[in-house]
Amino acid sequence: MYQLVRDEQTGFEEWINFVPVQSWATAEHIHDDQFIRSGFVDHTKGNYPSHVDLFGYDENHIHIRDLSFLIKPTFNSPCDAVIKALKGHRDFSAHMKRSFIDILKKKDYFTALSTVQAASDRLHQNGYPSTMSDDQIKELANEKAENLRLKISNMKDDVDSCFAYVEHFLSYSGLAFREDEVKKKTKTGELFSLVNRACDPIWWRRQLRRKCALNVELAARDLELVQKHKQVYCSDFSVNRMRERNKSNEIALKETIAYDEDDPNNFFTLHELSAKSVSNPEIRRAEMFTRLRGFEELSKELEHDSVFFTVTSPSRFHAVSKGQVNQKWLDAGSPTAKDAHKYLMRVFEAFRKSIDKQDVKVYGMRIAEPHQDGTPHHHFLFFMKPEHKDFVISEFQRFAMLDSPDESGAKKHRFKAELIDKDKSAVGYIAKYLSKNIDGQHIAKDRNSNLDGVQAAERVVTWARVNQIRQFQFIGSPPVTVWRELRRVREEFKQDDAMFTDLTEVEHLALENVRRAADSGDWKAFCIAMGGIAEKNADAPLRTVYSVPDCIEKLIESGEYSATKYGDKAQARISGLMFKQVFVATRFRTWKTENKEVFLKASQKIMGGVVDWFDALEREQEYQRMAEERYQQYLDFMSYKEEFELYAFDSFAFEAAYSSGCSAQPDS
After folding, report:
1. Which class for 15: exposed (0-12), middle (13-18), buried (19 or more C-beta within 10 A)?
2. Are 352 and 424 in the same domain?
3. CATH number where 447 lies
């Protein structure tokens, strides 16, 4: 227990931690006469020696003197410990200071100090500060990869031993390979590829960025920063760091070229391609609304009911309750946002298994978004047959309330189900949640904070990326990859095409109907053409084909080429679609990427050679024109000379020429 002690003689004050202890004299089972024993000196008695013979002979004496009187009393300021805890955390130190002051006002100094110190320890728990800049992360990644590479190079070519050492090495930095990835590589005999990854600075850079971002967000929740009246949804530090990463990514995309291997003149920057794909928030939002609208139109045609659900995790997952740190959250070991998300996904998976056993089908969408303190909750928009509605609601509620059903507020907040009027738009119920989790467009003000829609969306998207949470999931729909691949095909599938000669007229019409629905952006027609919403993806008439290019496969089989720089086989990429054992090609170009400056420099070099060649031709023609002009001058001169000689040696001709040039005749 700390107490403030004042020295009356000097006037100095100091906080001292008084800890109850037992001595030889105070312990109940030891008598006073047993306190002085061999090896102890009673300094309460006078005439004790000024030195002690430690070795028992005169040649080695160590003289011990009592110099305690030279020690001057010191006073440690309570702020020194706070400054030490804040040191080395860059911009995050200001947030830690704010948290310390807020906790100090509500509680006491030692609670505030211990909270800040615990957060500082979390930020340094892996041997490096999680608040370091991106340049520092790159330097650390290079250092870690180089150190590991040197260690591995000195080891024998034993893959298992090398991998065991790599796992041990990664653990000191708080990193590890996923268990499923290790099992897969072990099964395929490609465990060495994981060792190669751990020796790559780029791999280290990605892992450290994720780890640092997550640690900072966890520390921010520990410091009670993430809540409504402070930093809603996620920490300001994470938002600013994400902005920097987005700017850096945008520059990288603008400086990288994707070009057609067969036609290098056909090239785009990755930034241009990103703007044309679902990576663009506007296109992503438009595609999701298109699919939801298609679901709604299909449900009305089938006369299905629609229900909007909200499911929240138990109290122990919430870091803040009524503006104060939640004691249940502390008692549970401070679960993370990812822990709460996993809990909600287990509830949903149990619910789906239950209704599948009863052959009850639902289709719709799931959206994960954060509470003000960063704890996730899930929204669901489900369409179903009217006779299944009551069972779906009761079954979903049963699984949502299995955990801690009697805690305060559970019945009110943990599960909500709202039947949507058929005269109203079901998409309208989820539209604001969809937009808030993408780019915040068409939202004037966020009702859970004082932010506008765009600002709230930025924080929500940052929250999802930092905590590695999947925001959206469509349920019960045909695979969207088939939809996207068919939208790449603009021309009609003609029956006389050699690719479709094995298809009957009915099968060709079915394939063309799927293509037309995708091309026109009609999700309802696409679902119908793909067999309906009750069909499993494995039973769909069209499925995506993933493959490695044939030339790569041959090189891999021959042992002359490894598909990735780490030595393992390349991940298969989309090459087309399969319909009734007929392959439908959707990708006809082979794209490669190159740095923009390098690509344009190479192009200019090629064109420079062409220009030089044309310049040479031009100069050659110019010289020819100059030669022809000089030659013509020479011919004119020779003609003049011949005429002059003729006039000089033929007087008659001279006179005739002279007389013809005169206007008056001479006298006769």
Report:
1. middle
2. yes
3. 3.30.70.1910
Q: Which of 477, 496, 529 corresponds to the end of one domain?
A: 477
Q: Residue 37 corresponds to which amino acid? A: R
Is position 146 within any domain? yes
Q: How is residue 437 written in tokens? A: 């989790």
Q: CB-side exposure of 478: number of CA atoms within 13 Å?
A: 29
Domain closes at, from 225, 247, 262: 225
CA geometry: angle 289, 373, 446, nearest 5 deg: 45
Which range of 20-34, 274-288, 332-346 scores highest in mean pLDDT? It is: 332-346
Distance from C-alpha of 93 to C-alpha of 216, rounded to nearest angstrom: 11
Active site residue 433: yes
Q: What is the mean pLDDT of residues 187-211?
A: 93
pLDDT digits (tens, 9 = 90+) for 101-155: 999 998 999 999 999 999 999 999 999 999 999 999 999 999 999 999 998 888 8
Kindly state the helix (H) or strand (E) to which residue 427 belongs, with its residue range. helix 426-436
User: 441: domain range?
Assistant: 275-477
Tell me: do 341 and 417 sit in the same domain: yes
- Structural domain includes residue 234: no
**Catalytic residue chosen out of the listed positions 109, 165, 429, 566:** 429
State yes or no: is 658 an active-site residue. no
Give residues with Cβ within 8 angstroms of 237, minimum separation 6.
Answer: 91, 92, 95, 131, 216, 220
Contact 413, 312 (CB under 8 A): yes
Indicate whether 320 and 431 sit together in one domain.
yes
Based on the structure, what is the number of domains in the chain?
4
b or e along 377-406 (b: 16 or more beta carbons within 10 Å of the residue's beta carbon)?
Answer: bbbbbbbbeeebbeebbebbbebbbebeee
Q: Do 425 and 289 belong to one domain? A: yes
Q: Which residues contact 587 (CB under 8 A, 6 or more apart)?
A: 488, 574, 575, 576
Active-site option among 128, 233, 259, 433: 433
Verify that 317 and 429 share a domain, yes or no: yes
CB atoms within 10 A of CB 211: 17
Q: How far is CA 65 from CA 9, 58, 61, 70, 412, in A?
A: 25, 18, 13, 12, 74
Instruction: Indicate whether 22 belongs to any domain.
Output: no
d(CA 270, CA 279): 11
Determine the pLDDT at residue 554.
47
Supply 510's token pair.
């079915």
- Pair 190, 207 in one domain: yes
SS3 92: helix
**Cα 301 from chain centre:** 40
Phi, psi for 580 (deg, rounded to 5) = 55, 45
Gap between the Cα atoms of 32 and 547, Å rounded = 87
Q: What is the rounded average pLDDT for all residues in the chain?
A: 80
β-sheet bridge partners, residue 206: none
Pair 269, 346: CB distance under 8 Å: no
DSSP 8-state assignment for residue 569 = P
Tokens of 94: 């200001």
Q: Is residue 302 part of a domain?
A: yes
Q: Indicate if 548 and 416 belong to the same structural domain.
A: no
376 with 449, same domain: the answer is: yes
